[in-house]
Amino acid sequence: MIFQVEENDVGKRLDIFLHEKFSNLSRSHIKNMIDGGNVLLNGKVVKAGEKLRLNGVVQAEKPVLQEVKTKPEDIPIEIVYEDDDLAVVNKPQGMVVHAGAGNTSGTLVNALLYRLKNLSGINGKLRPGIVHRLDKNTSGLLLIAKNDFAHNSLAKQIAEKTCKRTYIALLEGTLKEQEGVISTHIARDKKHRTLMNVCPETEGKLAITEYKVLKYYKGYTLVEFDLKTGRTHQIRVHASRVLHRPIVGDREYNPITKINGQLLHAYKLEFTQPRTGKQIVVTAPVPEYFEKVLKKLQEK
Asked: What would the mean pLDDT of 3-25 be, rounded to a whole number?
């Protein structure tokens, strides 16, 4: 849908303007639409708080709302750390974090509702306890908040970059630079809206990733990535579009990959326990299928 900014809309925040147009949607839902790059102001991706000017043009797809109820399900999950305020889960590859279009069961949230007595309610009924997310085909560690106090603290740590999230990925080809920092802006790909892409500064959000080569194999490079921001598909985009060394098994950004199973794993989390202030470090080794690929490459 396309809306033109009129005189009585001048100075309004973009999210408030859209909330008036889509009164059946919550403010948080609208913010997610804007943050996800699904709303354009004068053809550009902007922030939810962007102030409107006369004759501006807002493009937004009105979502088809479907009531989704998340129920507890007895799904095995690995909890690698737990206390009264939070848990850290080692999510397997192929598991969706929370319910959405086409995914109403079998998600991590379904499993959490069965395994944990309490979960924070800040993100609503569809995403209880979820502080941050991993893509469906990315494995590894996720922070889960059991109460709102812990959720706010952990979310603040992520926003202020005091929570460190480290990943391991196997990349196609030989990466010449042994370490570096990638700093770009990322937004929805204009041709393929389910994907992200590098874009001009005015059109997307800042995405910063540090990387370091761990090991070279014949035709492949094992790399450690340290997220400084948490944009959608950030590591996958930076690997494929900036380093030009896409992640092995990532069929969306690496269609010619010969290996089934995306070899990207969130293996370490470093954060402060919200109530005690204790520094906590949690690690999880790469999954068995990932390790098997590395062993085969080592043999060669």
From this structure: 88
